[in-house]
Amino acid sequence: MYGSASTHDIPTQATTGLENEDPILLAEFEARIARGEKIEPTDWMPQLYRKQLTRMIEQHAHSEIIGSLPEGTWITRAPGFRRKMAQMAKVQDEVGHAQLLYSAAETLGKTREQMLSDLINGKSKYSNVFNYPTPTWADSNVISWLIDAGAIVNQMANAKGSYGPYCRALDRICAEEAFHLKYGHDAVVHMATGTPIQRKMMQEALNRWWPAIMTFFGPSDKMSTHTEILMRWKVKMATNDACRQQFLDMYVPKILEIGLTLPDANLRKNEDGVWEFSEPDWEDFKRVINGDGPCNAERIAVRRAAEENGAWVRRAMQQPKAQYVRPLA
Amino acid sequence: MLFSLDPRISRLELPESAPAPPDKAALDQFPTYEVFHQRKENTAYVYVGPVHAPEADVAFLFGKEQFSRRFPCTGMWVVPTEAIRVTEYGDDQQSVYDRLPLLPADVLAATDAAVTEAYDIFHLKKRGKAHTHVGQVQATSPEAALQAAKAAFGDQRPVVNVWVIRSTDLLRSDEADRDMWTTTPDKKYREAIAYKVQDRIDRFKQEG
């Protein structure tokens, strides 16, 4: 799941640096993408392409790791054996996705050690929705269904992007997501069509999560020079707004049909078929993503503890003669 | 102490804030191995991705967990990344064999005289897809193996990229252990098809 649908820190004003690139190589690179061919790790690529893809794939990987925490916390308290097994399988998938994505990012030149360091040192971002807590089982179900659904919208688009290793990883990830989405839907429907207490619990969880879900795809795109170039290079495959509209189109009806309501009085589809909604609180979004959310400290602390607790195992298995070679594809 | 809604996390007694740990040392995450799997009996092995591991046996375990956990698999190979000889990448629709420099005659002649070894050859047919095993050749060096591969498989087109691996560098799953691949059918709960929710939605709507 969890391709944080928008990449945080896309530079908006800074120069693209394209004037420093070799014009002939750049033309060949763009021609390759224009005729639908993928870029492979040893190909020449502009600095901006490498930098932006590294940041995007790395953030995606971090989001998988951190995103598994709010659901992982419910494994021990899942209602019943069947749900527990499924929740475990899902969390295991998410962590597996992180492994695939770290490797894809690594082919661009940033080592896995550096990416993991940047996560636990707070230098790298991950999807902001995971800075919020899952106080009940129903909250975990909302993540399983709707956050995954949002991520799938984004990942299906990105799987058609131009970078070979990322496409290979996403093909595998998307195949596994099919289970997550169905599992999440099943869990939400079970609660929403259950007893009055279950219904109430699910409705309250949805109310808590809806504002975060509306920020999941990131702020409205300003068509900056960067956005335009990144879309031409097939790094960014759809605008944030397009992804959000697609998500609302697919999932609002499914939410309403099981008798749940959405906590936004302005949410409606206008005559042009475009969804209107209350603008999310982007100031709050900024505050949380920069560290001041309800769970930022806990997420990083838990990740750090896992790193520290595993250090002796890694030390014991070190091979003194090992040499670093970048993965090939 | 960090308070969490999850009592297991509170019990870790983690500090509210702590100084950033030092950056990880190089190779803290181990070197990489590349993994190939066979999805069905009697089909070609296909590249699935890298894993980080301290040695080949562990790489095999990680590869099995990562790449055979959710999909049918009947065999797996792993190889250290550094043991793969990679050609340049061509365009889609081309063959990189066409651009292969010819080895000097004396090198090729030496090929016949010296003791040969087996090399496994993998082709990438299209950018963004995965390298697929096409067969083995006998040669005295990776360079000579590439020439032999051109002779044996050069008529296959397109070939965007070729990987040459000395066969003894590949760790392969053993035929005798094939029952290790038969665990997946028990775990229906992690398949999308196990969740049939429409009945419940319809019933809910009828009861309105």
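Chain A has eleven helices and two strands.
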